[in-house]
Structure prediction request, 217 residues.
Amino acid sequence: MGWLNTAGPVLVWVIVLSFVFLECATIIGLFLPGDSLLFAAGVVLASRGEHLDAWFLSVAALVVAVIGNQVGYYIGRHTGTRFLARRGGKVLTREQLDRARAFLDRKGFFAVVAARWIPWVRTLAPLIAGAARMDPRRFMLATTLGGLLWVPSLVLLGYYGAGLLDVVPWIKTVAVWLSVAFFVSGTGFGFVRYRQEIRRPVDDSADVDADPELNAA
Prediction:
């Protein structure tokens, strides 16, 4: 476990902040293991036993998540969603967009808050909200509130949960390696799926037009 005391923490910060931004700002986020990444980061940092690392990372990842969603919002506002869905796709489909749009239409403001906990909606919500011209201040407030409930919860749950295993050190070591292995395998699988989906032809019928219900909800 010596590598965790040198390059480990730096790698955790770089990977977590990079992946959180990608998941919140770009469509590739649909294929990344965001929830498990944040939890795994907490577990890995617990091996150092410095709780400030976990708290600082939580704050930094929260800021990046909010910035990422703002980027996604303005991408959707300027391009719509017509470039997302793929004909014959399994993940990037018109049905997925329709489901996410229906969720946002029904719940409005609170849908953006709750979207942080729904992996596929978490990535699509900013794009759809931007395409639907949701009020930017309402979106900013909703996505910040959602981020406050999402990022620190998972990082700190992983950190303090792993800390409870100090009484059985070998189990804690296994938990750290399992977290790393799950993240690496999940990320690899996600990139493969993304390449398969993005090569399919664009489904031009899947664009989301401006919807006043998002501003009224």
Notes: Confidence is low (pLDDT under 50) at residues 1-5. Residues 2-216 form one domain.
